[in-house]
Amino acid sequence: MKDRIQNANFPKTVDGRVYHLGIRAGEVANRIITVGSTSRAESIAKMLDASPKIFSLYSERGFLTITGCYKSVPISIVCIGMGAPNADFFIREVRECLCGDMLIIRLGSCGCLTDLPVGSLVLPASSVACTRNVDFDFTSGDPWEVPYRLSKPVSADPDLHRALRDALEVTRPLSLKNLVVSNAVNASTDSFYSSQGRQTSFQDHNASLIDHLKAAVSGLTTLEMETFWIFHLAVSWRGVKQSSSAVVLPLDTVPAVPVFPGIPSMRSEKVEVHLPSLDGNTSSRPVIRAAAAQMVFASRSSQAFIGPDEVNELEKWSGRGVLEALTKFDIAPERLHPVTGSVWEPIEPSRPLKALL
Ligand code: R1P
Fold first, then answer.
1. Closest-lying ligand 1 atom to the alpha carbon of residue 110
2. Is ligand 1 within 6 A of the CB of residue 35?
3. Cβ 197 under 6 angstroms from ligand 1
């Protein structure tokens, strides 16, 4: 850590950079693709417009944020690595830097539990969480506890889900016949190994886990590690109204709310916050909408694993499809982050030297 951090409740640098992603307001757009690997982020970034200049920031904690425009629409690609904690850092810290609506499409890889071939694309309509129950006695077995817990399902945003499905059909290269399945259920796990039923040298008590999951969750098709938490946080966010009447409360006794130009910063002893009025008009509040496209890299039934050339083709197609879905998805102008001061603000061409003389 190089910079001085203030506010232990929502740590930020003096110039407003969030602690783990390292970005600040104006460096992340309302439309976001999130991926797990930097190579996937960089290959999607190659499809962005040449102008404005692409912004790229690798944080000390390994998050990569790339922001530019696609067909003149501001868009960010955020590489978050793996797992629920990173998905949580991503959503909360981006939300803190963003004014207005937040659209998120996760483009990730997954394992498939059905007989879909590797290279298929699955767009989960909903997701459940499957987590290791640490109260279970993994050393000796345990008659009282179950070794894994299963959550209730949470849904993708139906409009964004549909837009993604349609965009993938429009962008499909003629040569690719890969299947697209859009009515599937996903399970996000807290481990690639134990809670996905893989057998290792650890006593995970998971030999029958996959059969149990398939029996318990109708339509269960894929396993990966982030989608559930993205969907869950998206639907749980209650939308902070950014232009309601302000109240003054002491620092650290209030929920963190984004700080934007025109609103006093949290540097002072007192902080001005804009609390959501829960009985107010909810349609005026910003929203988080989330959907996901999952590339089947591994078949858990045939044990097949995708090859590198197939990954290249699939990432190009799905990357283009996600860009198209996000940029065509309408957001009302008043629900967009301000252009002024952002990294996508067009820079006026410098006047020719002659005109200055
Ligand atoms: C495990 O290999 C990782 O791959 C999948 C899982 O969710 C987990 O993050 O997604 P990504 O390819 O997006 O990283």
1. 5
2. yes
3. no
φ/ψ of 34, rounded to 5, equals -115, 135
Name residues whose C-beta falls within 8 Å of residue 122's C-beta, 6 or more positions apart in sequence.
110, 112, 116, 180, 181, 182, 184, 186, 221, 222, 293, 294, 296
pLDDT, one tens digit for every residue, the chain (357 residues): 678 888 899 999 999 999 999 999 999 999 999 999 999 999 999 999 999 999 999 999 999 999 999 999 999 999 999 999 999 999 999 999 999 999 999 999 999 999 999 999 999 999 999 999 999 999 999 999 999 999 999 999 999 999 999 999 999 999 999 999 999 999 999 999 999 999 999 999 999 999 999 999 999 999 999 999 999 999 999 887 554 333 333 344 445 555 554 444 433 334 343 433 444 566 789 999 999 999 999 999 999 999 999 999 999 999 999 999 999 999 999 999 999 999 999 987 665 555 444
* Residue 274 main-chain phi, psi, to 5 deg: -115, 95
Q: Which residue has the tokens 């059905």?
A: 114
Q: Residue 108: CB within 6 Å of ligand 1?
A: yes
Ligand 1 centre to CA of 297 (Å) is 10
Q: Are the C-beta atoms of 222 and 186 separated by less than 8 Å?
A: yes
Q: Which CATH class is domain 5-356?
A: alpha beta
Instruction: Provide the whole-model pTM.
Output: 0.88
> Which sequence spans correspond to the domains of the chain?
5-356
> Beta partners for 106?
34, 292
If you measure from the C-alpha of residue 78 to the centroid of ligand 1, how many angstroms do you get, rounded to a whole number? 14
Give the single-character DSSP code of 242: S
Tell me how many degrees the CA angle 52-55-59 measures, rounded to the nearest 5. Answer: 175
Task: Report which of 79, 80, 67 is spatially closest to residue 337, judged by C-alpha positions.
Answer: 67
